Amino acid sequence: MFYLKDSLLVADDAVGGFFALNGGAFDGETGNIFYLAPDTLEWEDLGMGYAEFINWSLSGNIMGFYESFRWNSWKEEVSLISGDKGILIYPYL
Fold first, then answer.
1. CA–CA separation, 31 vs 19, rounded Å?
2. Number of domains present in the structure of the chain
3. Which residues pair with 33 in a beta bridge?
4. In this predicted model, what pLDDT tens digit does every residue of 25-47 receive, in sequence order?
């Protein structure tokens, strides 16, 4: 089990990234969403709070955010996995 004190995991993605609400665990503004990028394994401040994150995830620039994690057949491959699974990409794209 993964436990990260002073944060709340709010989302994950198919390529192994995690989104967490900062409650003081990370250097950065409390209340901001941080992303654990699978290629760097470092938490990155996205510079947005939870409500803005939800809006961004539903209508923001998702294509630009994931541009470096896409390959030619990504749509077909991701459509075949269930919501509790992910895809390991190594070496990183």
1. 12
2. 1
3. 21
4. 999 999 999 999 988 999 999 99
- What region does 5 belong to: left with phi over 0, alpha with psi -120 to 50, or beta? beta
Q: Scanning the structure block, which residue is given the tokens 């993605």?
A: 13
Measure the CA–CA gap between 62 and 25, rounded to whole angstroms: 25
Structure tokens at 55: 């809006």
Amino acid at 73: S
The residue range of the domain holding 74 is: 7-79
pLDDT digits (tens, 9 = 90+) for 72-81: 998 898 899 9
Tokens 């630009």 appear where? 64
Q: Is residue 1 part of a domain?
A: no
In this prediction the pTM is 0.86
